[in-house]
Every structure is written in structure tokens, then in C-alpha cells.
């Protein structure tokens, strides 16, 4: 689904640093925020990665501030998406697994 068609023209990727014992409670709170399109526990710098949609930059900031108010969330780092190069997709992988993809690319 195209979230821009719903009026959410800005997408951002945010990494939240969290207290490890609070991850389950934080994940439950993230699931309750409709503007968080997906969230993953990750390795490396940061702990939870989120893709967020907003009606504008200020709205994305409000979503981030809402998450930062959750107990156990320490800080965030955000980048705003400018345009998709490869949008979310699954079909090429399904084609490869099923042998339907062109081996020449």
C-alpha cells in the first residue's frame, strides 16, 4: 500500500537505543503507534530500527518524541527517506526460490 496516498508523504528510518530489559515492553508500545510501519531489533549501533510515516517532517518528529517518552528508550537517530530506489517487495525472492527468475538477471 502507498502510504503517501493516505496523506503520509514523509517516511523516516529511526534507530532507538533502549535499555535491553525493557525491549518487550517497548515493542508492545511501538505496535500501538499506527505511524510505525515496521520495527526490528537490530545488531550494531542502536537497538530497534523503525520505519515511520508522517504527514510531514514535524509529524514524524512528534511520533519520534512519543516513542522517546516510553520508559527505557534512551535516544534516537533518524534519517528521512527522499525517494525509493527499490520499494519493499517480495515477488523477486519468490520467483528465485520457485525457479521462475531469469538466471541472467
Please tell me about this protein's structure.
The protein is 28% helix and 29% strand. It is α+β, with helices and mostly antiparallel strands and 105 residues long. It has one domain: Alpha-Beta Plaits (2-Layer Sandwich). Strands 2-3-1-4 form a four-stranded antiparallel sheet. The longest helix has 12 residues, at 57-68.
Stretches where pLDDT is under 50 for at least 5 consecutive residues are: none
| Corresponding CATH architecture | 2-Layer Sandwich
Shape: globular
CATH class: Alpha Beta
> Helix amount, in percent?
25-40%
- CATH fold group: Alpha-Beta Plaits
Provide the structure class: alpha+beta
Summarize the structure.
The protein is of the alpha+beta class. 28% of the residues lie in helices and 29% in strands.
Write the layout of secondary structure elements.
Layout (H helix, E strand, L loop, with lengths): L9 E9 L4 H9 L4 E6 L6 E7 L2 H12 L4 E8 L10 H8 L7
Antiparallel strand pairs: 1-3, 1-4, 2-3
Amino acid at each position: 500500500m502507498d502510504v503517501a496516498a493516505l496523506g503520509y508523504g514523509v517516511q523516516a528510518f529511526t534507530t532507538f537505543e533502549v535499555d535491553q530489559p525493557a525491549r518487550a515492553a517497548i515493542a508492545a508500545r511501538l505496535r500501538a503507534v499506527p505511524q510505525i510501519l515496521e520495527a526490528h531489533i537490530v545488531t550494531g549501533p542502536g537497538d530497534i530500527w523503525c520505519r515511520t510515516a508522517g504527514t510531514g517532517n514535524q509529524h514524524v518528529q512528534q511520533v519520534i518524541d512519543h516513542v522517546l517518552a516510553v520508559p527505557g528508550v534512551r535516544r534516537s537517530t533518524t534519517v528521512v527517506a527522499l525517494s525509493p530506489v527499490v520499494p519493499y517487495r517480495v515477488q523477486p525472492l519468490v520467483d528465485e526460490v520457485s525457479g521462475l527468475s531469469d538466471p541472467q538477471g
